[in-house]
Amino acid sequence: MAVIRFYREGDAEEIAALTLAAIRETALAAYSPAQVAAWSARYSVQRLLDGAARGDVILVAAAAYDQPLAYTVLEADGHLDMLYCHPAHTGKGLAVALLAAAEAEARGRGLARLFAEASELARPVFARAGYVLLNRRDFTIPVEGGEVAIHNYAMEKRLG
């Protein structure tokens, strides 16, 4: 059974590992190997550390022995950045629980809406949590020798 808790300084390495596992393994169900390689190459744990230093709310779903299994980042403006779950723990309700905890935190902070860029695989999870699809976002990720086309979905949930 997982518990939702706030990020702790010692979580960074395990969160980086679960993020890369999620991108490199889980994302292959919806994205090409080239897209997955480009996506994982641009991930940096420094983004998480910078967010923590900035005061972003990082919510972690942790196992009974306190190992991070999934997480999300709530930024001050209501942007949900990085909803990732370790591949061994997908489909167990962790993402839904994290979205509910992020919503409660956002409401407590007086935010009027939450918004995110959801991957192909995360889109249905956000939809089940009441997020509305705004549009598909097609973009490219620079890679050595060119760029790789990829997409995600702009989604939002009004809290008012």
Write a structural description.
The protein has 160 residues and is α+β, with helices and mostly antiparallel strands. Helices cover 34% and strands 34% of the residues. The chain contains five helices and seven strands; from the N terminus they run βαααβββαβαββ. The protein has helices at residues 12-24, 33-42, 45-54, 94-108, 123-128, and strands at 3-6, 57-62, 68-74, 79-85, 113-118, 132-143, 146-158. Strands 1-2-3-4-5-7-6 form a seven-stranded mixed β-sheet, with helices on both faces. A hairpin with a 2-residue loop joins β6 (132-143) and β7. The longest helix is centred in the middle third of the chain and has 15 residues, at 94-108. It is globular. The chain starts with a strand and ends with a strand. The mean pLDDT is 95.
N-C termini distance: 32 Å
Helical segment count: 5
Structural class by SSE content: alpha+beta
Give the mean pLDDT. Answer: 95
Low-confidence stretches: none
Task: Characterize the overall form.
Answer: globular
Number of strands: 7
Helix fraction, binned, reads 25-40%
Classify the beta-strand content into a percent band: 25-35%
Helix and strand succession?
Answer: EHHHEEEHEHEE
Largest sheet: 7 strands, mixed
Computed over alpha carbons, the radius of gyration is 15 Å
- Widest sheet, order of strands: 1-2-3-4-5-7-6
